[in-house]
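Folded chain entry —
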Amino acid sequence: MRSAILKQSSIGKIFRREKMSTYKSYHSYLINSLKDPAEAAAYLDAVFEDGDKEHILLALKNVAEARKSAIEGNKQTETKSSQ
């Protein structure tokens, strides 16, 4: 069975040089990195270049998850500041 998880080595150069050890998993590191629109765009460009449909679907899912997380975080911040 072919893994649908993108190899870190192929996309690692895209992300800022953060210490991954501060995250519980690579997935949480990835999602946090993808909250930045420029990082998300670079990530998608790399995946589209690869052309594998499974990787593209996974990448789109990851970017959507990051955007949802960013929006929810902004709503929580707005709620706290208005109280």
Notes: The chain has four helices and no strands.
